[in-house]
Amino acid sequence: MIRNYFIYAIRNLVRQKGFSIINIAGLAIGMAIAILIYIWVQHELSYDKFNTKYERLFRLVQTQHYASGPLTTTCMPGPIAKDIRDEIPEIKNSFMFYSMTMTVNYGNKVFTEEVRLADPELFEMFDFDFIEGSPSHVFEELKSIVITEKMAKKLFESEDPMGKIITLNNDLEFKVTGVIEEIPENSSFRFDICFPFRNIEEMGQSIDEYGWNSYYVYIELMENASYPDVNKKINKFLENKGRERSLAEGNDDYDSDIDLFLFPLEKIHLYSYRDGRGDIQFIYIFSAIAIFIILIACINFMNLATARSAKRAKEISIRKSVGADRSNLIRQFLGESLMISFCAMLIAIVLVSVLLPWFSLLVGKELVFDFSDVSLWLLLIGTTLIIGVLAGSYPAFYLSAFNPAKAMRNGINKGKGNFYFRRSLVVFQFVLSVGLIISTIVVKRQLNYLHNNKLGMDLNDVSLMTLRGNAFEKYDVLKNDLLSNPNVLNVSRANSIPFYIGSNSGGIEWEGKNTEDDIIVGFTFADENYIETMGMQMRDGRFFAGEIQSDTSAVVINETAAKAFGLENPVGKWLSWGDGEANRYHIIGVVKDFHHLPMQQGIDLMTMYYAPQNCRLMLVKTRAGKYAQVKDELETIWTSNAPGFPYEPKLLKELYENAYTDEARLIRIIGYFAILAIFISCLGLFAMSTYMAEQRTKEIGIRKILGASTSGIVSLISREFIIWVLIANLIAWPVAWFAMKDWLDGYVYHTQISPDIFGMALLISIVIALLTITYQSLSTAAKKPVEAIKYE
After folding, report:
1. Please, which residues bridge with residue 196 across strands?
2. Is 760 exposed, middle or buried (0-12, 13-18, 19+ CB in 10 A)?
3. Percentage of the chain with pLDDT > 70?
């Protein structure tokens, strides 16, 4: 019996080649997309889980509460890692770490690399595979260093790296004491070079005082410790330490409100510390897209199966007349459906193997289709069975219920239920497709908004370099040499990238303050040429002048700060960061607001100080369009003043755009998936138009005899499909609006969802539908009336 079902299913598929190809192609493309998304989702959810202790590892995070709003940060004071481990019994281990960019030298090899400084407890808490060296001894010496195998090959090629000396920033020498295998890509804690955290003191930074938050901490809980209970226990740890320090200094009015909490390692990659959103939204978005596309493919199958049911009326009637019961027919049709599903899955696996390298580039991850993963194969087989049963269930139960006599006499496609069901499925397909079109347009507009929004400064033609070693010491000479080039307009220095100034603090006072509320205020350091180099504008007063000695105790504030301080005429007033005249600064100017934080955040209070000695970022403004022309000349000037430090400039405009790579990637992915979803929908629409044209062949012949034109026939056939598309748009618009509004709400500054977006989606969907059915409509309308009349 099963053999007969199998043979008959194959014959039926071969007999209806066109519809079989459309069915299999639609399902195969849908399954391939779903598999690719599954591989990516599985990769994203696997972050950090290779660590055997990942469930007990946490990042320390603090939220500082101010009258101006809360500030959540992972930055911590230097002593906290050791103190919290000693004072909280449930905390088994902890380590402090810090990241910085340094120049790496070995022999004639010189390059810049981001390095990590960490306590030795790092190697007790995280899993690293050591090729050489022992994790318990690699940091016994202060000047020891651990590198990855990739870095070892880059530096030493075929030499044995152990014991070799690496020079950092041309003056710090470290001995290689350990080599580890490449850290997995799905790790949120990665490095190629790491050396002991204690070295940071030699670099002029303090690690022994509370109140200065610059470093980062991971902690490990005891096996039986309760994460929520520990969170409650440490909640006021930092606040209490601050109060103790304040009392020791003779100040008893400490009133800071700080919450300290643990953030699970397994959530770091996907969730935001501040609001819990983060990259998890991409998991939801792409998972929804995978489900939508599979549904579209399944709808195609169901629609085509019911649409072709008239062709099988006699077959079903004869089989039932000779004794076949309904269960036999159900098994037969489900068998055909499962066969199509398995054929589609085999093709989908081939497509995934071919497309995976391209998809990996698209998502920016090294994805692998692991054929040895038993759970993946079980999932694929299970999905194939579910899709086969889901897609074939309605046709199986619908076709098997026909009355033999009625089917032989009148056919089986006359009922209103069948009519409305097929049209409902087509409408649902286009609801999903239109939703993807709208989403693509909205995300694209948001990215354009981010790139083209007025930032309050000009990033064009400004390059950025880090001043190290001789470059920092000889800055004035370097600046004069650069300005001697006629294509260099301005040279300045600062301590932060202009559109990402994250330094801030509370405890500020100002002249005329009439509230006890503490307000958090951002700050940055710059020299006298900064505002001109960055194209910022002054609202009141002036910017710093190098020749005015008193500017070392002056401050420039932004418009938002002036409003928050309640100062209508702030120039000439003072503000302070503590007691005493030395901490008091005179306001000499108000700069117009500029976006000093990412667009997900609003413009906060900002203060600027004249402190060139604290600025290690050099900004060079060149004439419009001349940067590429003078790049080599600038490199020559740099090399002559800072030998041993590579010339590695970065364009601010590119850095800003790179800050929104997730949005750019989201546009590309949704765009491609929208195209594929529409293509699958069009396969079904084409097949449906072919079927409907066949059903109305005789009617069309009569209409032509009575004088109907070809354009009239085309309009007749197309009209119904256009109505379906219009209904789909009306349903999709509010759903897409709510979904995209929620996404846009994650940005303080964002584009608006304007009516023209829905108009564009409507136009695109109508054009696509017309292009899909026009050929079949013209073909049908062009038939000779006599041939149409003789059709039956």
Report:
1. 118
2. middle
3. 84
